[in-house]
Amino acid sequence: MSPVAVLPLAAPTAGGSASGSRRGVEITLADPDRRARRPLPPWLRRLLGPVLLLAAWQIGSATGLIASNILAGPWTVLHTGYDLAADGTLHHNLLISLRRVALGLVLGVGVALVLAVAAGIFRLGEDVIDAPMQILRAVPILGLVPLAILWFGIGEQVKIFLVALGTAFPVYINTFAAIRGVDARYMELARTVRLSRAAVIRRVVLPGALPGFLVGLRFAFTVSWLVLVVSEQINASSGIGYLMDQARTFGQTDVIVVGLAVYGLLGLLSDGLVRLLERHALAWRRGLEAT
């Protein structure tokens, strides 16, 4: 507890009252130990969890509590990742995975955005589009793999289709909800100034739906990596998922962990990219900031 000092306001006088002589000001003195204990910076606090997890993993591997055939140690995983990067294996398969995700995202996000705008603005569009989208959203994506293979074969098309299908739903749902949540006063103002339908969409609807679209895009990036890791293990001959599937066949847990780390890093980077885009695109919007 910090020490407290009481200082008198004035010296007592002969004719003064007893209560007047007792008045004072309490001053809380600074605790030198408390001043020395400065809080950790935010970036360092965020690293505490991963560092503790890595330490527990390393201790478990070094003491034999975690067998190498169950989970390779972190140093083994690090060396394996370096070897895969040095001989070009990781780079080659990473580029193929990135290409599949990029094509699937462009296709899925583009189609979902068009459908969301049509369903959000036009009553007929909602009647025709929204119900089938809600039904398809309830169907597990991986449950469509057999049909997708029959439709597209086992080549690149099936993987791109699955990524596109998985990323379309979060974009559609969030964009549709954002369009329906546009302030009605803006629509009244647009009708008052006699804006055309195209101008209303361009100047009112799309800017108002942008926050919801970006939220859906963040979810879409996450779903794209989840779908890709499974689709690349189905009759594939390249990609990060293919490396993991081959490693499973030969019991190489270190390669599997390297693949998982790559997927996690890609997901983190893509989420950071969308958040950066959101920060610049929505600079006009003020919200609650964490303290």
TrEMBL record:
Key words, A-Z: Cell membrane, Membrane, Transmembrane, Transmembrane helix, Transport
Topology relative to the membrane: Multi-pass membrane protein
Entry-linked InterPro entries: MetI-like (IPR000515), MetI-like_sf (IPR035906)
GO biological process: alkanesulfonate transmembrane transport
Nucleotide-binding recorded as keyword: no
Segments crossing the lipid bilayer: 101-122, 134-154, 160-179, 200-221, 255-277
UniProt subcellular location: Cell membrane
Superkingdom field: Bacteria
A Pfam match: BPD_transp_1
Keyword Cell membrane among record annotations: yes
Domain ABC transmembrane type-1: 90-274
GO CC entries: plasma membrane
Entry's family note: Belongs to the binding-protein-dependent transport system permease family.
Classification via PANTHER family: ALIPHATIC SULFONATES TRANSPORT PERMEASE PROTEIN SSUC-RELATED, ALKANE SULFONATE ABC TRANSPORTER-RELATED, MEMBRANE SUBUNIT
Protein name: ABC transporter permease
